[in-house]
Give the backbone structure.
Amino acid sequence: MKVFLKIWRQKDAKAEGKLVDYEMDDVIPHMSFLEMMDTLNEKLIVQGEHPVEFDHDCREGICGQCGVMINGRAHGPLKNTTTCQLHMRSFKDGDTIYIEPFRAEAFPVKRDLKVDRSAFDRIIGAGGFVSVNTGQAPEANSIPVTHEMAESAFDSAACIGCGACVATCKNSSAALFTSAKISHLVKLPQGKLEARKRALTMVAQMDRENFGHCSNTEACEVECPQHISVLNIARMNWEFAKAKVLK
Amino acid sequence: MKKELISTLSRKYLMALTGLFLCFFLVIHLLGNFQLFLPPDQARESFNGYSKLLSGNIFIKAISYILYASIIIHSLDALLITLFNRKKAGKYEYDKRGAASKWYSRNMGILGTIILVFLIFHFKDFWYQYKFGALPVDAAGNKDLYEIVIRAYADLWYVLFYVLAMFALGYHLLHGFYSAARTVGLYHPKYVNLVRVFGTWYSYIITFGFAAIPLYIYFTHY
């Protein structure tokens, strides 16, 4: 099948970028979206051009490295799917496909489709952990956790940090990402000990990183590859208020 | 990387709490207004008496100051949040993000602006008239606000403006009510669903309840 690509090309963080047209004649519907991009890049390299740079790693939908805006949607037209799990069969012969980086004030473009998502790392660094002395692994059943609560905590912990929530949010809010970690840890006995401090420090860091306010449009949940629930945001708001009142 | 005086979450709390107070006020307002559906003579007596009762009550006076403050804080905070978000938000050459959310959830600012414009007219029509205008007096000696209400809806265009504003309010509430519940931290799935259903019905009742009044008056009096 044939597709017409309009890809964001930008030399570095400071350069002005623009959409550049490419044509692909030999796309196989079974190709993943990133394989299509690889094929394009092979051509560009042969032609002596700089390949289109984009982030990717596992290509199994679990690492959170890949992620671009495809036809104006984070990770493309499918719900709850990473870019690497999108296949060319989701497009038709002759389609024009716009490919842009995830954009937000907090996610500066580094080159082409690659953005700097280290703001997420700093939010985690601000409190997304439990403080324990490492040593031998303790007996697993010494702290009882119900199956339901373990599952619920795991649902929140499933966030892969791809940044689609921020990219799709009209306010570029990182509420879903931050709240997933806050509620993952507060649901478990080990995480409860630092719950108040964590809620305050992680939210403060989120604000410092120039993300916008959450206005509950819920677009983040729709685009999230892990279908992280927006109820995590409610949990974060609750924990934050509790911490403010009780600190 | 400057430090904000007030966190994004606290800001949203302010929006939610003032919004929920306004939601509560709308219920009381609508219940009072339902007196307008009584037969004309009875409506005049009942509605004017009710207005007199409210305006003379010190407790209601205190609530009214909270109401004015809520409207102002809710609007100003919304304006600041919207401007801030616009600066932080990513902009795309080709943008179809709207497919992932409801249009009214993304346009609360526009809906809110329509409501604010409506409020200016609404305050001018009734609040200002009652407080500072030269009002006729009814048989019981009370200021005849009922007469002012009837006169206000003589023009069909004005009636339609009121109805349109009520639909803007309805969509604003449809998102606003459960969004406020989310912001204040209601996270249990069971109650979240209850609140969503309640909020939807609440929005319908408020919208159609208020919109029915100018229409009823227009079609029964003119």
